[in-house]
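Entry 12.
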Amino acid sequence: MPRGRAVESGAALTIPEDRIRGLGRDEFHSKCDLRGSLMIAEPMTKRARILMAAEEILSERGGDATISEISSTAGVFDSEIYQYFRSKEDLLFSLAEERIREAIQDLGQQLQGIREPVSKLGKFVWWQLHRHDTNRRFSDIVLFQCRSRPAFYLHSAFGRIQEVRRILVEIVQEGVAQGVFRRDVKIQAFRDMGFGLMDLECIMSLAARETDTARQDLEPVMDLLLHALSPGGGRKVRVPDKSARLLQAAERIFAEKGYEHATIRDIASRAGVADGTVYQYFRNKDDLLYRTIAAGFGPSAAKEGFQPHLEDQMGVEKPRSGLGRLRRFMRNFFSIYLNQPWFARVLVLHGIYNRAFYHSGAYSVLMDYMGALGPMLEQGAAEGSIRPGVEPRLVRNLILGSFSHLVLRWVFSEDESRFDRLKEIQDMVDLMISCLVSEDEKAE
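Predicted 3D structure (tokens):
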């Protein structure tokens, strides 16, 4: 048998039994390497071996991984993988589902015996940040490889994520019932905001390398969330017409098909130009994707994106209070989905949940745009309406994360007609503002 191939169930694999017993499930999956040379006496099913091999290969090679590479590492034939999984994508999602199922079991153990809602919420947030910090393979697969694919939200794996989300809802409901959390909290909005913030904390640590670990922000993250639960209180710059049409076409194609399945030919056809014309304006598909995202945040003749809203916040119109400017900034940002739903979908799936985005020019444009938050927070703090000392980057993560989760729910819900999006946006903005307002402002 070639080196690196696992053997049949009941025989030897590659990690010593005593080492496994000393690891948590997440740590085990992050450290296990099927191509090592140590041995384990415990048997594994063929399906489990395939999943473990897939985790190793997919975390290393991402979308370039092949079924043959996975089967070779698992010690099975290619055809045997299809006995368990319909496709490579189904294998990817099934891997995420299995790891999330294991994580839910661990979460249950972590929360066992904790009765006080604030402590339970703190443990939940710690667990969410910690598991991404300690298992980077899991994080890469779930946050980037799965979340960026539209099919993931229709797979049973996403149902596992919904189970985790329900646990957070139950914690908040317990706090409300006990009188610890405010009774008028919009729990669905809080769930989306909380998970969105935690997602962005993990993403900014993992992909943008903004912090060494996500959990180092545990205290300020909890401060934002608990403050929300406390009972207290347009400009255009012309570009060539063909370039504008290509950006518009790319936005729609990326949103409908996803980056993986979108082709230059699809985009050129929708824009009404020859395939070769695309390369007169864009280097490749990556360049087209990131310039599509960047166009939404800066001046562009392709469409009016976020830039007019930024100009409003920066004082192009009459001066406003810091809190008023911040509230309007948030409302305008979330309202982009109502005016530009395709762009919002591209931004979330292929920007925020795309590791490579954080090394692109589009990311810099987004950060420049979100930089407007700092002056608003400073003004509000000076006026006494916003708590002093709140970090702008945490507020940025709060906004981007909450926006992402709200958009994902709207896009992938089976019954879109039941949403009152304007009301949900207002509820979300009110909840985010409640994280930030001063006690005096809450009391008014």
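Annotation: Residues 1-85 form one domain. DSSP finds 23 helices and no strands in the chain.
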